[in-house]
Amino acid sequence: MESTDLYSVKQRFFLGAYKSLVEQSLPDESSEDYVPILFYKARAHIALGDTETVTSLIPEDTENLALKAVAVFANYISSPTGDAALEELRDLCVEIEGDDVDASEREKGWVRVVAGTAFARASEVEEALETLGAESTTENAEAVAVAVQIYLSIHRPDLARKEFERAKQWAEDDLLLQLIESSIGLVIGKDSYLDAHSFYTEQIANPSVSSPHLLTARGVTRLLRGEVQEAKSDLEEAVAQQGGQDDAETLAARVVAAGLGTKRGDAEELWSQLASAHPEHPLVTAVNGKAVEFDDLAIRFKVPPLAIPTC
Known about the structure:
Layout: H1 4-14, H2 18-22, H3 34-47, H4 52-57, H5 65-78, H6 83-95, H7 105-121, H8 125-132, H9 141-153, H10 157-168, H11 175-188, H12 194-204, H13 212-224, H14 228-241, H15 248-259, H16 264-277, H17 282-300
């Protein structure tokens, strides 16, 4: 049975309330919650782009394999190539399969989640899914959540739905399961995105977990529902909560919202910001790819001669 403190930490992490999580003090090292809370707090720092703090949070000589995985993941994010870090994560995945490994089943699951996330970021999709135990009997809700995101990113909502339905057979109807369902609903447009909209609205109403991440998610949902002005309101509030700074997802959503409006200049300005600050964002790479295709087709297109009247 999880403590109230650990449940709250996990809830905030899953819903993207990273700022409040990194500001929380760690329990005493003798507490059973120390390692789990440190694990999620370190990952929250990584989510905020602060990999340096992870080095100071996790002792270099830690024997805990889950904490080791997080430290290696932070190195991967901050490294130009990350190949060495990926190899370390592969070694950890092999180590947790040993008969004499000093790690609980929960900690082994954490290693798989962190490693699978890193492999997915490195575009090693098959390895990521295998590590996460996709399409297997593994009962790890966090691993399912990451696998679902991978399937959605490669345009396979059918497989994402299959993972979700499998998880429903053994997972409790908890927050993470609802979040998974909402993510799938955003992609397939179930019930005009009503389930996702209702879920995000419910969570935003809870001040302990409300975050710019949730506001952006509801803003995207509202864009998909055609509620452009309401979406802009959510996105502006998300920016305000981030101290006037956009993260990549909020900025991308604002680009789309501005493009649906009448002020062309606003859309172009936001697009320039996104392309400059986040050149690897999926929206930027997709639009740039279409621009290259258009230029290639334009070069090959031959304008037919004008028709000349015969009489």
